[in-house]
Write a structure and sequence with these properties.
It contains 29 helices and 13 strands. By secondary structure, it is an alpha/beta fold. It is elongated and about 105 Å long. It comes from Lates japonicus (Japanese lates).
Length: 673
C-alpha cells in the first residue's frame, strides 16, 4: 500500500530528545539548590546532541502549549566538560527578542572570537541602554525593573563589531533608524552574507568594502536609488541579491529594463534574485503575442523578460511576488515566487515565512482561494508550509487567521484520504495552539471548523484533555458569537460520545456539566430552542452515561430545575425531549440518586416513556429495573387516562411481561409489574 502524505516516522533521535526534554528530572537532571536544574554528574553530551536539545527545546516552547519551559535550562550547557555549547558558540539566531537591551551586546562580545553567524532580526531594543534582560544572566546580575519600549531612549553608542573577526553571516533586519549601519559594520572585514532588511541607509558606498567577499545581500524594504543600484552592481561576487519590497503601493522607485540588465550583466555569479514588490515598466517584457507561443520554458534565450535573456543559465530562485512579471509565460528560473499559480504561491510561502510574515500572510490567503475554489495539487507541501507558518508566527494574528482558514479547506473530505495520521496530528496541534493564543472570533471559528474535519473523538483522543479545556473556555463568556457557540457545543458533544468512562469523568471535573447547563439557562432566558440547546442536552446525555459523578453534578447544578423549565417552555420539541429524557434515564440508573427523582413534580413531566421503558429489560441491573417499574406503576395508577394509552402505544405491556418472566426480577418488582 502506498504511503500517505507526511507518513515518514519520527527518527529515534527526535523521539528520545523530546522524551528527555519532557522528563528532564527523570532522565538527565536533578533538582539542585533553590530548585535549580542541574545536569547529572555521569552525563556527557557531545555537540550534536547539545544542538538537538537546544533546537528541540525552542521548538517545544514555541509550538507546544503543554510544554513547561525551564528557567535554568540553558545553564545546563555552561560546563564544557559535560556539554559543548558555551565554549564553542558559533551560531546565534535571535528573532523579535524585544526584551534584550544593550547589556546583551556586551555579553555578545564574550563570543566575538568564535561567532561565525549572528542573527538579531527584529531585536531593535538591543541597541538601547535601558530596560530588558541580559542575554546571559550571572547570579549577581542586578535585575532591572520592567520598562516599556518607549522608555528605552538611550542609544548604545559604544558598541560596534570590533574583534568579531570570524563573523561571516550577519542579519540586522529592523535595525533602528538612529543606529548608523556604516559605523556599526565598518570593523567587519570578512562578511559573506549581510541582511539589512527594513534598514534606513544614509549612504551606500560602505558596502563596497566587501565587494570581493560578499556572496549574499538582502535589502528588503530598503529604499532603492540610482546610487544604491550603482553600489550593488559593484559587488561582483554576489550569488544572492534581494532588493524586494513589501508592496508596490509604497514604492517610488521604478524597476526599468536598464537597471535589470545592469544587474544581470554585472553580477554574473547570481543564482538567486528577488525583485518582488517593485513597479515594472512595460518595456521589460516581450510583446504578449510573441511570448505566448510554445510551451513554458526556463531557457534564458526564450525568456519573456528581456534582461534575463542575457543570463548564462537559469536562476535557482527568482522572486517576482507582487509584480506583473510573474504572469509571463517564459521565466528563466527553477523556483519562482508570485501569484500566477499554485507553485508560485507555495514558493512564496516557503521563501517569506520566517522573516516576512506580511508577505507569507498574503500568499497563504491565495493558497486558501486555490484550495477553496480550485484544487490543491501539492497537498503535502501546502500543509507542511502552512503548519510551519503557524508554528513560526504563533503570535501573529493575520497569519493565524489566514493559516487556520487554509487548514480548514486543506483537511476536508476531498483531501483526507491522502493524509497520514502523523500529518493530521500536526494540524490538530497547530489548530489548538491558535485556539489557546487567540480569543478573537475569526481565529476561533476557523479553528473549530477545522477540528470538525476530523473523526471525533478518535483523531482528537491524543489531545483529549487539552481540546476539551479549550472548547469549554470558548463557551465560558456569557454572550459568545452564535456560530462559534454552535460549533463548539457540537464538538463537545462529539467528544463525550463513545469514549471511556474515565475520559467522561475527567471532562466532568473540568466543569463540562456546569458549562452545558449555563448554556441551557441562557437559551431559556432568550426563550430560544436552537441547535445549541439541543446539542447541550445531548452532550449532557452522553457525559452522564454510566458516570455517577457527572449525574450527581447535574443534580447539584440545578439540572432538574432547568429540565422542568425546558419542558414547560418548549412543550412541542420532541428531539429536545428525547435528549433530556435520555439524560434523566442515566441519572435514574444511579441508585443513590433515585430518591431525588421520585417526587411527583419530576415524575409527572414525562411526554414519552421511552427513557423509562429502556430500563425494564435490564436483568443485570435489577435496581434500575425496579425504579422504572415503580415509576410506571405510579404514573398509570395516578393518571390512568393519560398514561395507560401511552404505555400501550410505546410497547410497555410486552416489556412488563418480560419483567415477570425474568428470574432476576425482584418479587416487589414483579408485584408492581
Amino acid at each position: 500500500m502506498a504511503a500517505k502524505a507526511g507518513d515518514n516516522p519520527e527518527s529515534l533521535m527526535t523521539l528520545a530528545t523530546v522524551f528527555c526534554l519532557r522528563n528532564l528530572r527523570k532522565t538527565m537532571c536533578y533538582q539542585g539548590f533553590r530548585n535549580k536544574l542541574c545536569l547529572r554528574s555521569d552525563i556527557f553530551l557531545p555537540s550534536e546532541i547539545c544542538d538537538k536539545l537546544v533546537n528541540t527545546y525552542m521548538e517545544l516552547v514555541h509550538t507546544d502549549s503543554n510544554f513547561e519551559p525551564e528557567e535554568s535550562f540553558f545553564q545546563l550547557f555552561s560546563d564544557p566538560r559535560s556539554t559543548r555549547l558555551t565554549r564553542d558558540l558559533i551560531e546565534l539566531h535571535l528573532t523579535y527578542c524585544n526584551s534584550l537591551s544593550s547589556r546583551s551586546l556586551k555579553t555578545l562580545t564574550c563570543f566575538r572570537e568564535t561567532l561565525v553567524s549572528l542573527c538579531l532580526f527584529g531585536c531593535s531594543h538591543i541597541f538601547y541602554r535601558k530596560g530588558g534582560a541580559p542575554l546571559a544572566c550571572n547570579e549577581d546580575t542586578e535585575d532591572d525593573e520592567e520598562e516599556s519600549p518607549a522608555s528605552r531612549q538611550a542609544l548604545e553608542t559604544d558598541f560596534n563589531f570590533q574583534g568579531f573577526n570570524r563573523l561571516r553571516l550577519l542579519n540586522l533586519g529592523g535595525l533602528p533608524d538612529e543606529v548608523d549601519a556604516e559605523t556599526l559594520l565598518k570593523p567587519l572585514k570578512s562578511l559573506h552574507s549581510l541582511d539589512l532588511s527594513n534598514v534606513q541607509l544614509l549612504g551606500t558606498a560602505f558596502l563596497t568594502q566587501w565587494k570581493d567577499r560578499l556572496a549574499s545581500l538582502v535589502l528588503y524594504n530598503v529604499d532603492l536609488s540610482e546610487e544604491l543600484v550603482s553600489t550593488v552592481v559593484e559587488l561582483v561576487n554576489l550569488r544572492h541579491l534581494d532588493i524586494s519590497r513589501e508592496t508596490r503601493r509604497t514604492s517610488k522607485f521604478k524597476m526599468t529594463r536598464k537597471i535589470l540588465t545592469a544587474v544581470v550583466q554585472r553580477l554574473v555569479n547570481l543564482v538567486s534574485l528577488d525583485i518582488s514588490g517593485h513597479i515594472m515598466l512595460d518595456n521589460c517584457t516581450v510583446p504578449h503575442f510573441e511570448e505566448a507561443m510554445g510551451r513554458p520554458s526556463i531557457e534564458p534565450c526564450k525568456s519573456s523578460i528581456y534582461p534575463f535573456q542575457e543570463l548564462k543559465r537559469p536562476l535557482q530562485f527568482l522572486g517576482l511576488y507582487d509584480t506583473t512579471l510573474c504572469n509571463v509565460t517564459h521565466i528563466p528560473a527553477y523556483k519562482v515566487t508570485g501569484s500566477k499559480n499554485e507553485d508560485q504561491v507555495l514558493n512564496a510561502i516557503e521563501a517569506y515565512t520566517e522573516f516576512r510574515p506580511e508577505l507569507a500572510h498574503r500568499a497563504i490567503n491565495q493558497l486558501f482561494d486555490i484550495a477553496r475554489i480550485q484544487h490543491c495539487s501539492q497537498l503535502l507541501r501546502a500543509l507542511q508550509l502552512v503548519i510551519a507558518a503557524l508554528k513560526c508566527h504563533k503570535y501573529d494574528k493575520s497569519i493565524q487567521v489566514t493559516g487556520s482558514a487554509a487548514l480548514f479547506y486543506l483537511t476536508n473530505t476531498e483531501y483526507r484520504s491522502d493524509q497520514s495520521v502523523r500529518l493530521r496530528r500536526e494540524v490538530i496541534q497547530v489548530v489548538l495552539n491558535g485556539m489557546e493564543q487567540y480569543q478573537e472570533v475569526t481565529v476561533q471559528r476557523n479553528c473549530c471548523l477545522t477540528l470538525c474535519n476530523f473523526s471525533i473523538p478518535e483523531e482528537l483522543e491524543f489531545q483529549y484533555s487539552r481540546v476539551n479545556q479549550l472548547l469549554l473556555k470558548i463557551l465560558e463568556p456569557a454572550r459568545q458569537d452564535e456560530s462559534i457557540q454552535r460549533i463548539a457545543v457540537h464538538l463537545c458533544n462529539a467528544l463525550v460520545c463513545q469514549v471511556d468512562n474515565h475520559h467522561k469523568e475527567a471532562v466532568g471535573k473540568m466543569g463540562f456539566v456546569k458549562t452545558m447547563l449555563n448554556l441551557i439557562q441562557k437559551k431559556l432566558q432568550d426563550r430560544m430552542c436552537d441547535q445549541v440547546m439541543e446539542f447541550s442536552w445531548s452532550a449532557l446525555w452522553n457525559i452522564t452515561d454510566e458516570t455517577p459523578d457527572n449525574c450527581q453534578m447535574f443534580l447539584n447544578c440545578r439540572g432538574m430545575s432547568l429540565f422542568l423549565e425546558c419542558l414547560q417552555e418548549f412543550p412541542d420539541k420532541q428531539e429536545l425531549h428525547r435528549n433530556m429524557l435520555g439524560l434523566l434515564g442515566n441519572v435514574a440508573e444511579v441508585k443513590a440518586l433515585r430518591p431525588q427523582l421520585l417526587t411527583p413534580q419530576f415524575i409527572t413531566v414525562f411526554r414519552s416513556f421511552e427513557p423509562i421503558l429502556r430500563l425494564l429489560p435490564q436483568s443485570i441491573s435489577p435496581v434500575s429495573q425496579h425504579w422504572a417499574t415503580w415509576a410506571l406503576y405510579n404514573l398509570v395508577s395516578v393518571y390512568p387516562s393519560k398514561y395507560c394509552p401511552l404505555l400501550i402505544k410505546e410497547g410497555g405491556i410486552s416489556l412488563l411481561e418480560k419483567v415477570l418472566e425474568l428470574d432476576s426480577s425482584q418479587p416487589e418488582t414483579k408485584d408492581m409489574a
